[in-house]
Amino acid sequence: MKAPRAALLAGLFLAALSLRPQLVGVGPLLPRIQSDLGVSHALAGLLGTIPVLCMGLFAPPAPFLSARIGSRAAIAGSVALIGAAGIARAFVPGVALVILLTLPVGIGMGLAGALMPVAVKERFPHRPAFATGIYATGINCGAAASSAIGVPLATATWGWRGALFVFSAFAAVLPLLWLVATSREAPHRRVPARPPRLPWRSPLAWRLVGIFFLMSTIYYGVNSWLPDAFQEHGWSEGRAAALLAVVNTTQLVSSLAVPWLSDRHGSRRLYLLAGASQLLLALAGMVLFPGAGWFLAVAVGLPLGALFPLIMTLPLDIARRPAEVGAIAGMMLGVGYSVSSVSPFLLGVVRDATGSFTGALWLLVAAAAGLLAGCAAMSHERLSGGVTGERAAPAA
What we know:
- This protein has a single domain, classed as Up-down Bundle (Growth Hormone, Chain: A), CATH 1.20.1250.20.
- By secondary structure, the chain is mostly helical.
- The chain has helices at residues 5-16, 21-24, 30-37, 41-44, 46-57, 62-69, 71-89, 94-100, 102-123, 128-156, 160-181, 203-231, 237-262, 268-288, 293-318, 322-340, 342-354, 358-376, 380-384.
């Protein structure tokens, strides 16, 4: 028996709320963490690098886990892991244990993030971009809220540990809400055959990897170091954190509206090009005109909010079955996240070496230029051919 459409969409949204606070919410807290633990920018950057790396390494196993226990149970278990490991991380002493417990947080994020496209393909095969936009909006809501309230929570509780505890306790409740929302679904039937292999030999799949890598590099670079970068320009801790909250809050509008439009009007490529172009100009403005920070935060947030669900929809455009979506998404997320995971650490190294964030921000501008070039190569004909050369439904 299928669950009502509204309940399924609500479940996707609620589960997705857990996928970014443990990462994005750390960005505004990094100065406090550095001071409390006595670590460099590069070492503090590992708190951003490790989760993204785990999101890459544990995305490929997600379709196999879904085939064995079903996407419903797999998503619930993955989100529960985020909450449990996050609560433990909030209490352990010393930098070594804090970094160690960042690993299971990242594992849960990696599995859940790669399971979301599978869940969409199973439940919403005819409107994939809209359903993807729903869970992308959930991701952005979690990111926006955590970036906005992280510093106030740290001030009101026992510092950065208190803020991370609140994020984690909230995540621990979300698996129950997901299970309630999907409670009317039929029990999962274990798939006896092995899911399709990852499409390592597909040029199109590698293009998706490249696009996702560049978008992810920009996203996590901005969320890890934008508050610190603007504190260098004289902004207070609270104002710099609010700037990042504006970036993430602005994404809420475009993450839902643009995918909805792309399912109905125009081609996916047109929206990708528009988003990548605006992102390039806005990031360049961050370097050249930091005084316009509030305006530029909106200009960065809008394309980032649109690009994530659009890129996450591409595997659904070129695959026919949920297992194939899982394989393509697993490769795209696995390689893309794994490579882009070095961006918070690398940007921290550049900051330590140069004494400012100017060089680090220029690296993000270069990544945006590469993203624009990659999106320009995503033609309707190329997407319709799929990874095997078979023609897929013309959704793009």
